[in-house]
């Protein structure tokens, strides 16, 4: 911490959230196909897919079961071979309803004929292959990767940032990728760098993962590219270091203006698991059908990293790694800072899902919010420079114009404000409602 | 469902801090000065503190009942106000007047405006100002400390009063630092106040911005108007005001730039009042005046959201 920051003269936002990386040294175990998978048709930002199979159809591993003709979307594949038993509906943790394809597994895992390495010789081939792979941002947001690879100003992109910050407590699935498949990360990054003509690749890792840093640096040093740089950058461990805009600023010093995208400042940010998957897909042609998950939390008996097929019910995943040691009081999809609380454990694993956190009752304290004492902790914690108490006041008076002026749309709901609030105020919730109020006023 | 799962908005972790914990830290930080006040001014100082705290806590409790609002005594904020009010009073003040100060601070200034977090001026300071204008004689009856210095008079003028009358002060800097001088019971011992302030900074309860800039401004301005800057910062209520009153969360700006403006304003007003008004001391008035300006300061210094550029007026 610099003198200026310590004196409170300068703030950089963020909080020191506990790391809780219990599973860092847990090698990924592979979960066998479950009896039944429930494949949601909306596992990405953008248009949901429409099932391309009917009840009674036989499907194979890697076969497309849902697709969309809308540009912002990504096809969805089956991770098991078996029979489609139902096309039904599911309430996602986000509150949206989606169609699902339910497949009864035959346990044989026969692979579909379409699974073969794609031929990629040009940028257009790459975009096409990425779309076919079903890849979406695996860091949690689930933005279709082929769209990300097609920014408005492609030539303006000079920097590819591989997001390995993994700043959320508990989660170690990105870290395990670095330890288990460092070659894939580097090879994926090289591919993207080559086809996008980027001048440099920055692999951004938080300082609390020294093994990942040394592993990646070793391999990156062997990469010789006369036309570009290949850096492994170690960043302070401070939540939310991995938030896109925060990460771009930390890596390049560039600032993404409100409402703009990383490509507008010449950056392309990809999650480390996404980039490694891309490398493997180009080698094997196996689309995105499984996912590494960190399963942890105070209710879990034996926290682990597990590779599960997308669509596996969360309950089955928890049972496979040894079940719970106490009753689950709160079940999260994602990390504890930004993850969504689930209404039941029947929900299936989704593409962008990187952790399941099951909290025991002792961990789930709902403290009643008390009056704001204007201590300013939320202001100092906000990585987006917002003043939450002013936003709360504008929200109470329903002043959408003022809310917008105060920058509420810049809020990424990282949770630092609520985390730091001594009065336990539900600040993030107010932010979400405020954004809704701004949208409503504009509609 | 059999075992319903808890559904709440993210985040699902909390730092564990509470309003009560912060207030407790402030009380710990105030304790050295409280102990010193009893050493300096005897049991009467303890009595003033106890009556002030009792009055504030009772008023808080009764106000919440009358206003039909959830009880808030447990957050300890009324205790803090009580101690701070006592620190601003001479040890010789009649105890019933202390109790009235507590009523003004809690009922009028704090609860009538909505309770903790909603008062726009510092409750303890307004309590002191009301007592000063209601009971000028009792509020100006300064007792000599029991400890130290060979002065055997029972009462005496405070150093700033002596200075404002054009007199020479008989206290050296060492006495001022250790608090061997007449004054409000919590304001005299600079050492104890600095200890408390350091504790608050280390515990991240306050940022040092306001105290440092406030005291620094007084130092420079006192020197510019021809006074002794060290005497200027070591006497009067400056240390108490700068460390414990001007840093009050509710009545100071929430953002750093605002804090700087606020602290400079406090320093400027303090020196102006000390030098050019009929009052010997200006810390309480300057903080209260700046308290009132906080919403304006905050509006003028609001930080821009990440990535936004300051827009020109005509755009």
Question: What this model shows, in words?
Answer:
The complex is a heterodimer of chains A (443) and B (315). Chain A has helices at residues 3-6, 123-133, 145-148, 173-180, 182-196, 210-222, 244-252, 272-284, 314-320, 377-381, 388-396, 400-405, 416-420, 427-442; strands at residues 29-30, 36-40, 50-51, 58-59, 64-67, 76-77, 82-91, 97-105, 159-164, 200-206, 229-235, 267-271, 290-296, 304-309, 328-333, 340-341, 355-360. Chain A is an alpha/beta fold. Chain A folds into three domains: 31-115 and 287-363, Ubiquitin-like (UB roll) (Roll); 123-284, Rossmann fold (3-Layer(aba) Sandwich), CATH 3.40.50.11540; 369-442, no CATH class. The termini of chain A are far apart. Chain B has helices at residues 19-41, 43-66, 77-87, 95-110, 123-134, 159-164, 173-178, 190-202, 209-224, 229-234, 238-245, 256-276, 283-301. Chain B has 315 residues and is an all-alpha fold. Chain B has a single domain (19-300), classed as Ammonium transporter fold, CATH 1.10.3430. Chain B contains 13 helices and no strands. The model of chain B is unreliable at 149-153 (pLDDT under 50). Chains A and B meet through β15, β16, α13 and α14 of A and α1 of B.
């Amino acid at each position: 911490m610099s003198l200026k920051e310590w004196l409170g003269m300068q703030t950089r936002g963020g909080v020191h959230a506990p790391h809780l990386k219990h599973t860092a040294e847990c090698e990924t175990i592979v979960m066998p196909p479950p009896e039944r998978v429930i494949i949601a048709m909306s596992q990405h930002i953008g248009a949901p897919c429409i099932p391309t199979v009917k009840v009674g159809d036989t499907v194979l591993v890697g076969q497309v079961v849902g697709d969309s003709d809308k540009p912002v979307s990504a096809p969805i594949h089956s991770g098991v071979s078996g029979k489609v038993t139902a096309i039904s509906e599911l309430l996602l943790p986000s509150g949206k309803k989606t169609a699902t394809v339910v497949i009864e597994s035959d346990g044989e895992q026969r692979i579909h004929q379409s699974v073969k390495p794609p031929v990629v010789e040009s940028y257009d081939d790459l975009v096409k292959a990425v779309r076919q792979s079903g890849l979406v941002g695996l860091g949690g947001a689930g933005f279709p990767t082929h769209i990300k690879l097609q920014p408005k100003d492609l030539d303006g992109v000079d920097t590819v940032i591989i997001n390995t910050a993994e700043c959320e407590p508990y989660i170690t699935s990105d870290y395990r990728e670095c330890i288990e498949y460092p070659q894939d990360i580097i090879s994926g990054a090289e591919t993207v760098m080559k086809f996008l003509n980027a001048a440099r690749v920055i692999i951004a890792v938080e300082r609390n993962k020294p093994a990942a840093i040394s592993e990646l640096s070793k391999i990156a040093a062997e990469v010789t590219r006369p036309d570009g740089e290949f850096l492994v950058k170690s960043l302070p461990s401070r939540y939310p270091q991995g938030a896109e805009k925060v990460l771009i600023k930390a890596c390049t010093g560039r600032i993404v203006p409100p409402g703009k995208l990383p490509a507008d400042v010449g950056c392309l940010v990809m999650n480390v698991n996404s980039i490694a998957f891309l490398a493997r897909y180009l080698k094997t042609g196996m689309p995105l059908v499984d996912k590494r998950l960190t399963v942890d939390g105070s209710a879990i008996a034996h926290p682990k990293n597990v590779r599960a097929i997308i669509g596996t019910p969360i309950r089955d995943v928890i049972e496979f790694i040894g079940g719970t040691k106490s009753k689950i009081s709160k079940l999260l999809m994602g990390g504890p800072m930004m993850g969504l609380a689930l209404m039941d454990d029947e929900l299936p694993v989704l593409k962008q899902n990187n952790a399941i956190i099951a909290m025991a009752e002792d961990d789930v304290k709902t403290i009643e919010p008390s009056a704001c004492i204007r201590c300013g902790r939320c202001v100092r914690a906000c990585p987006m420079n917002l003043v939450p108490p002013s936003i709360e006041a504008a929200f109470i008076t329903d002043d959408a114009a003022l809310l917008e002026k105060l920058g509420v749309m810049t809020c990424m709901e990282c949770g630092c404000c609520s985390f730091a609030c001594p009065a336990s105020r539900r600040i993030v919730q107010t932010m979400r409602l405020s954004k809704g109020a701004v949208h409503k006023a504009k509609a | 469902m059999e075992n319903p799962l808890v559904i709440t908005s993210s985040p699902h972790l909390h730092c564990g801090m509470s309003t009560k914990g912060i207030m407790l830290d402030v009380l710990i930080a105030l304790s050295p000065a409280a102990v010193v006040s009893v050493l300096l001014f005897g049991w009467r100082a303890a009595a003033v503190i106890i009556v002030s705290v009792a009055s504030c806590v009772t008023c808080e409790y009764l106000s919440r009942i009358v206003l039909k609002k959830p009880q808030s005594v447990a957050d300890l904020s009324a205790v803090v106000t009580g101690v701070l009010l006592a620190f601003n009073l001479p040890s010789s003040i009649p105890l019933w007047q202390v109790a009235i100060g507590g009523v003004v601070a809690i009922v009028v200034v704090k609860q009538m405006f909505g309770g903790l977090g909603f008062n726009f001026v510092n409750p303890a300071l307004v309590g002191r100002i009301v007592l000063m204008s209601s009971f000028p004689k009792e509020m100006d009856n300064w007792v000599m400390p029991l400890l130290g210095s060979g002065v055997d008079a029972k009462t005496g003028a405070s150093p700033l009063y002596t200075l404002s009358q054009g007199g020479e002060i008989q206290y050296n800097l060492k006495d001022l630092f250790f608090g061997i001088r007449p004054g409000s019971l919590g304001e005299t011992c600079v050492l104890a106040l600095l200890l408390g302030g350091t504790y608050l900074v280390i515990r991240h309860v306050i940022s040092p911005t306001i105290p440092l800039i406030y005291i620094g401004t007084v130092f420079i301005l006192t020197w510019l108007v021809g006074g002794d800057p060290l005497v200027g910062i070591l006497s009067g209520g400056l240390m108490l005001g700068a460390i414990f009153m001007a840093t009050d969360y509710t009545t100071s700006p929430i953002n750093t730039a605002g804090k700087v403006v606020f602290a400079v304003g406090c320093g400027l007003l303090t020196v102006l009042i000390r030098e050019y008004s009929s009052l010997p001391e200006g810390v309480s008035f300057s903080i209260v005046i700046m308290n009132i300006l906080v919403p304006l300061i905050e509006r003028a210094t609001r930080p821009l959201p990440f990535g936004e550029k300051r827009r020109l007026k005509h755009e």
